[in-house]
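Narrative summary of target 7.
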Amino acid sequence: MWPDAQPFLIVSASGRALAAMARRAGARSIVLDLFADLDAAACCEAIRRVAADRSLRFHAHRLLDAAAALAAPAACAGLVFGSGLEGRIPLLSRLAEGRRLCGNAPQTVWQLKQPQSLVPLLQALGIPAPAVRYEAPFDPRGWLVKQAGGAGGVQVRAARTGLQARPGRYFQRWVAGRSLSVLFLADGRRGRVIGFSEQWPAGADCPRRPFCFGGAIADAIVPASARTEVEQWVARLTESVGLVGLNGIDFILDETGVAHFLEINPRPTATAELYDARAPGGLFRWHVMACSGEMPAGRLATGAVRGQAIVYAPAALTVPAALRWPAWVVDRPAPGAVFAPGAPVCSVQAAGTSVREVRTQLDERSRTIGRSVIPLAA
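Modeled conformation, tokenized:
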């Protein structure tokens, strides 16, 4: 599978999960991300932080320069990208130049992350989704405001009076219900569901960005009718757009059991790691195979229910050199790392026999970090 043994270039807001998946699959990797945390560094051959100053965004020049220096096209097995590039299509295109692209084409990502093209596509495919408008509603109650190309809920807010239309801004009706996602694999023709996950926003843990991704737990229990409908969404979108590799769809399941499409992430999502150990050969291998048009034949093994939650900084903090992290913490920041209020600091993980058990563990572990670790860094 890796005949030339060249490293893959992984570019993602946080590259740790993809790098860990690559290592489990026996692949080498170079990571360019926004954090360069200790766990990501331990999974790859080289890592570089390429964030813009005081921002959770890529610095374009730093990213391109690092890619050229550490993973030039002639010395790179392929480009695997995660979150953070959905709204930076020209940058994604530059990264892909000369490199084997293990993921959806930049034009495909653009099409699926722009409401002006996504909404008509959903309507044509018969996929139900909340109402979208581009002018501010007269009464903002019950509306969310979003930015095209956003990811992870970072740019989602509750609409308020006084907001004006601007490029990329759109308004989406809020729908009450369970927040769920489906991870799926696609080979350009067929889509194959990997698993359904329960997820939740950061809420009060990140008051400046309350709709940020807070965490997720695999193996969510979803009614058969809703599962069937979402599986049909996967099939229609894959066939219509030619999706490849690992992708995810976020949706709401309302109190009547009806599923409402929220958005699609045309790249590996945060939940991929939760299923990785159960995929023969690993999901990184499956992703690369599917991007080449080959659907893996293996099936997921049974295993523990796994989950993860993000811990956000309640105030400005600097990580001290002597800080000791519990074993169930990942994305551990390097000593001296500085975080602004509301920035993601680390992740906690848990495993168990049910979604409820795992959620309880995650909540307890997040509180432990908040009580015993964060105060030392504040």
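Residues 8-102 form a domain with the Rossmann fold fold (CATH 3.40.50.20).
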